[in-house]
Design goal:
Largest sheet: 7 strands, parallel
Distance between the termini: 9 Å
CATH topology of the largest domain: Rossmann fold
CATH superfamily of the largest domain: Glycogen Phosphorylase B
Mean pLDDT: 94
Shape: globular
């Protein structure tokens, strides 16, 4: 069975959003599905990080790469503060995508359309293609949409417009796959007219070989001969300026910011290493001997606020920032660490919905995870693995005690072998395939 798989983000584009569609495309053939992928050519991703060319497909997919219109002066106008309602990628890609989809339908016996989003503007393109080809549509929603709130909306009208756009796409879908249970709950509350049975949980997964999962994990104490390394991989999706806009009262903002609106407040400083750094300060105060045996290393982009945060906590000689590396180097780095740091954002008065993609690569390492996470989907999944060490983000003293237990060799973990193996991408892709098969034309 062949399906049309539309994704704006796909290797060699090296960003978090390209991994999930690539992994599905790589493994769907095991369920008898051949994806016909339409994606922009690498040159369309101007200034973006590009990794090595696609590997591992072995003829199990058809890849069609299209051009994308260059930015225009109208894009700059639409991207201005008050007119910025939706990203421009869909508009710039539309005519090339529609032409490629029509040709793909002539060349292949397609049974369904899959659209992987974000960019959120491409959601409407998936609806348009599916209707034009008279095929069922599966929307794979990799992130929350209207309720993804790193910073406030320009106004309540901007939120309502995006919510309406989201609703049109979800109502047009025959199936909607989402990456966390909390995201499903949020979407159902926001769009009760979309039938609940259309929503399906399909988390991300790891693509490394299935790991050997021991009955228990207890690392030896750190020593001068064997120091202890805590590592972190990835981006934080946080800036102090955006957080300031979220929490500053309107009368302290600039006049053009007064109409800003957030349907709920999310604190993305919790996604940063701020709470972890506070725990390191407490560790240094209480146990300088153990602090000296600890190495902390980060791999990923190094924004200015991160170096400032390191300095503000007095950790210049403790935290090493390596910068961005390719995916293979990232996996090797994770394997070299003794424990891995994971964080999450905080939904004020609610539950966090995001499960970071790196979580699943961490799980495949079967290493202790220092979980500076808030109530929500990330914490729930980590707890089920049996690999997490719960470090309350708002309690640096307790978090420091957890680190002390780990460095002294007193921390014992009981991994859940069945659950960890169930997160392998082959099993995740098989679940995704069953949903595709359920809606596909006979």
């Amino acid at each position: 069975m062949k399906v049309l798989f539309i994704t704006h983000q796909f290797p060699p584009l090296n960003i978090g959003g390209s991994h999930r569609p690539f992994k599905f495309v790589k493994h769907l053939h095991r369920s008898g599905i051949t994806p016909v992928v339409i994606t922009p050519e690498p040159a369309a991703h101007r200034g973006a990080a590009l990794d090595k060319e696609v590997a591992g497909l072995d003829g199990h997919a058809v890849i069609i790469r299209t051009a994308v219109d260059p930015p225009t002066w109208m894009d700059r106008i639409r991207g201005s503060y008050y007119l910025n309602t939706l990203d421009p990628e869909g508009r710039r890609w539309r005519r090339h995508l529609l032409a490629a989809a029509e040709q793909a339908a002539r060349d292949h016996d397609l049974k369904a359309v899959i659209i992987s989003i974000p960019p959120f503007s491409t959601g409407a393109l998936g609806v348009e293609v599916a209707r034009h080809l008279k095929l069922p549509l599966l929307v794979d929603l990799r992130d929350a949409w209207s309720l993804w709130l790193i910073t406030p909306y320009v106004s309540r009208l901007h939120f309502l417009w995006r919510k309406a756009h989201e609703r049109r796409v979800l109502r047009a879908a025959d199936a909607i796959t989402v990456t966390s249970p909390q995201t499903i709950a949020d979407l159902q509350a926001l769009h009760p007219m979309v039938p609940a049975e259309r929503f399906h949980l399909v988390t991300n997964g790891y693509d490394q070989p299935p790991p050997v999962v021991p009955d228990g994990i207890q690392l030896p104490p750190a020593t001068p001969q064997r120091p202890f390394t805590i590592g972190y991989v990835g981006s934080f999706y946080y800036t102090p300026y955006q957080r300031d806009l979220m929490f500053k009262p309107w009368w302290r903002k600039k006049p053009w910011q007064w109409p800003q609106y957030a349907p709920r407040r999310e604190d993305w400083r919790y996604r940063s290493p701020w709470a972890f750094f506070s725990a390191l300060q407490e560790l240094r105060r209480r146990r300088p001997d153990l602090y000296d045996l600890l190495h902390v290393e980060f791999v990923g982009d190094v924004p200015g606020w991160l170096t400032d945060m390191v300095k503000e906590h007095g950790l210049e000689g403790k935290v090493k920032l390596h910068g961005r590396v390719d995916h293979d180097a990232s996996i090797r780095f994770q394997a070299s660490c003794d424990a891995l740091l994971i964080t999450s954002s905080k939904v004020v008065g609610g539950r966090d919905y995001s499960i970071a993609g790196k979580t699943f690569e961490y799980v495949a390492q079967v290493k202790p995870m220092l979980a500076f996470v808030c109530e929500g989907a990330q914490r729930d999944l980590l707890a089920r693995t049996g690999l997490s060490i719960d470090c309350p983000p708002d309690d640096p003293a307790t978090a420091a005690e957890r680190i002390i237990e780990l460095l002294e060799g007193r921390c014992v973990l009981r991994p859940d072998r069945a659950f960890i193996l169930d997160l392998h991408i082959e099993r995740i892709a098989a679940r995704f395939a069953r949903i595709v098969q359920r809606i596909a034309l006979p």
